[in-house]
Description:
The protein is α+β, with helices and mostly antiparallel strands. It has 3 domains: 2-247, no CATH class; 318-485, no CATH class; 494-658, no CATH class. The chain has 15 helices and 29 strands. Strands 1, 2, 3, 4, 5, 6, 7, 10, 11 and 12 form a 10-stranded mixed sheet that branches. A 6-stranded mixed sheet has the order 13-16-17-20-18-19, with helices on both faces. Strands 25-26-23-28-29 form a 5-stranded antiparallel sheet, with no helix packed on it. α1 runs parallel beside α7 and α7 packs parallel to α9 (299-317). The longest helix is centred in the middle third of the chain and has 19 residues, at 299-317. The radius of gyration is 31 Å and the shape is globular.
Amino acid sequence: MWYFKKSGALDSNRRSKLEEFFSAQNAATSVVRESIQNSLDAIDRKRSDKVRVRFTVSERSWEDIAPFANTTDVPLTLDDHTNCEDLDRYARSFRGKKLRCLTVEDYGTKGLTGTTDKDDARSGSNFVGFWWNEGITGKGNGTLGNHGVGKITLTRVSDMSTFWAMTKRADDDQTFLIGFSNLPFHRLSNCSYLGYGRYGVIKDEAGQDKFLPVTDPQTISQFSHAFGIDRSEYGLSVFIPAVVAGINHDSMLQAVIEDYYWPILNGKLEVTIRDLTKDVETTIDVSNLATAIDLLGDTTKSNFIRELVSAAIKVHGMKKGNPNYFTGIQPAIYIDGKHKRLRLTAEQFSADNLARLKEQFEKGEAVAVRFSLELEPKDGAPLTGTFEIFLKSTPEASVGRISQYIRHGLVITDQKTNIAGRFGYCFVVVDDEDMSNYLGTAEGPAHTTWVLGKFAESGKYNSDAPLRFIMDAASQLYRIASGEDEEKNEIQNFADDIFSIDRPGSGKQQEQQQQAKKRKRSEVPVPPPPETKPAELIRLEKMDNGTGFAIHPTKDLAEILASEGITLPFRIDIKSAYLSVKGNGRSFKDYSPLDFDYASSIQIENSPIEAVKILERSGNKLSLEVHSPDFQIQVKGFDRHRDLLNRTNLQVSESEVAS
């Protein structure tokens, strides 16, 4: 029976914000990613080496659903809540209608195991995490889904904002029936409800009312028969009524192949998609993945996925005795201020391996490196986690198209390699369980990227150095394989440019240097040109708290501009980097978006607002356009424990001057 909690005197009127994490994903992608990742995580290794997941689209009548739609507030039903006037345009009645429904079932898994006590939110219980937790990282180790948002994703694809779930549990052999409805705050029959509802039973335990799953065999049998569910094996079955139009055979097929091709190729996943309303069924496993791609309707998309899977197949083959697969590589450790950091350098490879790495990469062959990193849990002994990078170059005329981060079989879709040059493909693969657990703490509910703030928020590990390294390791490997790390330093006398002043006329300094070189080649002395004092236009000054710098106009700037014949506006280009442990010359090459990003982590304030226009802020580059000789600019948000270097370039109406 459904129970909708009434609003109390101190309860807020709210709606769930967790849906916002999935706003960039379509309905099919959301339900496929969430369902399969939870199934893979729940694999029952004692009984199976593969997880099977089945998606079934069917048509059901309201009469099928009605016996399971009663609420504790008789005579109200679930339909009365979904059709409440307070829901405005989302209010819908389903009485007497035919509904498209989705059933998601997994096999070879353990089901929703663990305690059913909601008061033990951090027990590691999969049951509590799935049914009760919201935004709480309560699952145990080895999990792909750590935020208790599976139920939010499942209700998101239902016009009824509702689902039922039946699980047979491997830990106690019990079968439970539960449900969840994710409606917003609303009023119904002169009563205010917080919105969310749960399907279960209220029982007295030790003098306290507990809301528990349905265990009555008759109710469970009736539900199974009504919706064609066979839960004779351990696992989980989810029934979602009134699914949105975006849930169909083709959309789910594309989502399965695009997001889970890796565990399918590994032989760890088999997926069946059935649409009983159209009499179509497709099973995808390692034997027919290429054939399944041919069923995708979008030619452009199917061609890319075919190329992606083809590259993944080659990557899989590299682990079997390939001489281009280098194992046991450990990055160098250095101390940045008070923090441990990791960096990959050529010295981490033997001379022979380094030579082969570069030679093969230059030839267009794929190379791979397996890294070992120490992980430091706050509770427990240190662990060794591993991950792999598979990298292939591309001809100059081509542009790399394939960049994939994969953790425990799940594609982390928005994670970027930060490789500046061209490449054919790059796979960063984390199959190791300890490393997967570590990285999982840095993911948001949608599992699309790794975020340092999320990692720190979890508080489970002592150091984020491995996370920072993994996020940037692909670009570091690329620089070594492509030979970029051997390029000569292009920054001369860079230390003098820290918070330096741009001046018109510095181009004359270069002419003087060229004249000096000519004098060395000739015995005839050449007199130096007459020295002219350059005019200062701006000043860069480090802030007292060390978190940034300020840009000021030089004194009497208006008069200087007039005397030099320079008209407003003029442009200031700034390129920044933290001082590298290898010296000034390496600083720009060693820049990583993990250090800072002008587009996101750096704050820029200018006064008055109309005096300065921001033209570009991306990575370590900032471009400003000055429209008035009277301005003040503050750039802040840098790490006060690190030395910041700035290269400035001034573009004026008649000349360009670089410091």
